[in-house]
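Practice problem 4.
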């Protein structure tokens, strides 16, 4: 369209118009105030010990929320040999500057003994943990079905406190009958949009994934994306859908039967976790800004005026 319009202009004016239309409006200001993050590739230092060490971790939290931690030599694991130099640099800088690890809540949607959504959630957790995140995986076993009488149930309170604690979430659900499972949806239903003036999910980042028993589908991740938007979360653009999940792991009882085998599906999960950390690092300092809304400011002002009038 732009080239068509230029062709309709007299020849003598075309160079000036072309330059004025195509020239960036504020090139100097943009480049000076927002320096780009340049990707780096340093395979020789791909393994960096950013993970929370045992000496700095709470034994209770480690036992309850970190079932993904491996007892084997971590340096030999495939996750620790990934070339994630750019995001590792970002995570290392963020930890040094803020002295705070990214806090990530991981949810999965099945109670089966060998749950593939849980296995994928644990693999995602290992990637995040390797990159310095404080990762906590919630176990949905024992969480009551959503109702009005179990708000004080210990599992409900645990889930709500974890959501409030977190900087971001990772959701992994199986797809059943063309959508996410009841086990997963029940967890989301128990997380309120607001508790008084506190919003347990607003402004947090979200990564989504699904596992399929058959061919690849995207119904569950599409529903997860809708839920994330409804919960006022920032869902990353990327997503993971693993088809025939039972073929992506060694058979039960075989060595490494809880670990994803090499494939494009595994690489895509790494992509999602890498992207999730980048977005969380960039957005976390501005959660308050993103949640500052005109309508809510006006509502707060009206309430304050009403209180002042009542006091008089």
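Answer key:
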């Amino acid at each position: 369209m732009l080239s068509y319009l230029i062709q309709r202009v007299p020849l003598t004016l075309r160079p000036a118009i072309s330059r004025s239309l195509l020239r960036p409006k504020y090139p100097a200001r943009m480049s000076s105030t927002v320096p780009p993050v340049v990707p780096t590739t340093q395979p020789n230092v791909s393994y960096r010990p950013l993970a929370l060490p045992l000496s700095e971790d709470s034994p209770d939290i480690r036992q309850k929320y970190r079932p993904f931690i491996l007892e084997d030599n971590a340096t030999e694991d495939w996750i620790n040999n990934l070339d994630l130099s750019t995001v590792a640099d970002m995570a290392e800088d963020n930890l040094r500057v803020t002295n705070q690890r990214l806090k990530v809540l991981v949810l999965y949607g099945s109670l089966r003994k060998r749950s593939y959504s849980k296995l994928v959630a644990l693999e995602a957790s290992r990637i995040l943990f390797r990159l310095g995140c404080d990762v906590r995986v919630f176990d949905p076993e024992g969480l009551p079905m959503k109702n009005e009488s179990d708000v004080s149930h210990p599992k409900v309170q645990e889930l709500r406190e974890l959501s409030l604690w977190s900087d971001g979430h990772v959701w992994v659900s199986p797809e059943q009958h063309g959508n996410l499972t009841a086990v997963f949806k029940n967890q989301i239903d128990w997380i309120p949009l607001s508790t008084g003036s506190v919003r347990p999910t607003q402004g947090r980042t979200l990564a989504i994934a699904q596992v399929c028993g058959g061919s690849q589908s995207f119904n569950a991740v599409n529903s997860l994306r809708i839920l994330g938007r409804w919960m006022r979360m920032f869902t990353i653009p990327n997503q993971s859908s693993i088809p025939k999940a039972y073929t992506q792991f060694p058979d039960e009882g075989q060595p490494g039967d809880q670990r994803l085998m090499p494939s494009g599906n595994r690489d895509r999960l790494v992509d999602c976790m890498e992207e999730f950390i980048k977005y969380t690092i960039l957005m976390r300092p501005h959660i308050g800004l993103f949640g500052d809304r005109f309508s809510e400011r006006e509502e707060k002002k009206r309430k304050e005026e009403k209180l002042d009038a009542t006091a008089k």
